[in-house]
Amino acid sequence: MCADQHQRLQRASQFDKLHGRPHHGPSQRLGLFGQSGKRCRTLWAFGQCRIGLQQPGAAQRRGGVHPELAGQQQQKICHGVGPDWPCGGGAMMKNTTRRSQRGFTLIEMVVSMLVLGIAATAIITLNSNLFYRLTDVRDLQTGTQLLQACAEKVMATRRRSGFSAVFECDEMSNFDGFDVPKISTQTVTGTSAITDSCPVNVQCKQVVITVKKNNISFTSVTLQMMNF
Fold it and tell me: In whole angstroms, what is the distance from residue 212 CA to residue 24 CA?
């Protein structure tokens, strides 16, 4: 590994010469440095080394990093290295790119999931009737459509057959569990107490349509016809 490091340092020096950069002499050359700024000679004393620019003075050595390697940090992963081993002996080099961004921690994820769970529980509690009574809402819509269809048929029969026609909706049976729409007819006059909307001395017929499902009645529809 030390031979590979030496080759990389030579290539970096040649790169500087080709691009007109200043040459690093004996007092200023590339080397390996530890966290304290001293030259990394043993892996036991300095568990982490980086390639940098060796300059005179301890303060300059701490901050001197080669410009070609400023974005990377070389970390040594050593196995069975003692205090007397030279830097690079029995070690493996691993390049890790520095990252300024970090993800969520485990505690942040747990807190987020807890907040979302509390919010979901509150929403389901407030709208529980909406999910439990979905079948009732569907039956109400179906019953209303049956009433409308039967009423339209009664009005069509009135126009086709006249005032004395018999009204029925027997063909609307076994529709989603609903019974046949029931039609009750009553003939009244304008002076009757049953209705006040019939003109005086005019014969009127009141038609009431109801639908049931499982012996439960839905809203009825009332029609009134006049015999002029």
Answer: 99
The residue written with tokens 């590339």 in the block is 30
Question: Interior CA angle at 181 toward 178 and 185, to 5°?
Answer: 160
Q: Under the phi-then-psi rule, with left for phi > 0, alpha for psi from -120 to 50, and beta for the rest, what region is 117?
A: alpha
Domain ranges of the chain: 2-19+27-97, 135-227
Q: Are strands 203-210 and 91-97 parallel, antiparallel or unpaired?
A: unpaired
pLDDT digits (tens, 9 = 90+) for 20-62: 555 544 444 445 544 555 555 544 444 444 444 444 444 444 4
The answer for 70, left when phi > 0, alpha when psi is -120 to 50, beta otherwise, is: alpha
Detail the DSSP E strand segments found in 62-214: 72-78, 91-97, 182-188, 203-210, 212-213
The two structure tokens encoding residue 22: 């200043």
**SS3 state of residue 31:** strand
- Answer for the pair 50, 30: CB distance below 8 angstroms, yes or no: no
